[in-house]
Design goal:
- This protein is α+β, with helices and mostly antiparallel strands and about 70 residues long.
- It has one domain: Translation Initiation Factor IF3 (2-Layer Sandwich), CATH 3.30.110.40.
- The chain has helices at about 10-25, 40-50, and strands at about 1-5, 30-35, 50-55, 60-65.
- It starts with a strand and ends with a strand.
């Protein structure tokens, strides 16, 4: 699954991301594209046990691939 959160004002990107994660099955991946590094999202992902990788894009946006935990 892929979400383009660019152009949205906080907290919309985080809310959309967490909502989409709820819909995924364990082990599935979600890639989000954000205008900025989602600093408040990372502690939430850590608390829920999800893993993630962050890549800064050439245009300054960030692509974050989140793997939903198996619990």
């Amino acid at each position: 699954m892929r979400l383009d959160n660019r152009g949205l004002q906080p907290p919309q990107p985080m809310m959309r991301t967490l909502s989409a994660l709820e819909e995924l099955e364990a082990g599935s991946q979600l890639t989000i594209i954000n205008d900025r590094r989602p600093m408040f999202l990372f502690p939430e992902l850590d608390d829920q046990g999800h893993s993630y990788e962050v890549e800064e894009q050439a245009d300054g946006s960030f692509a974050i691939t989140i793997t939903k935990n198996g619990a």
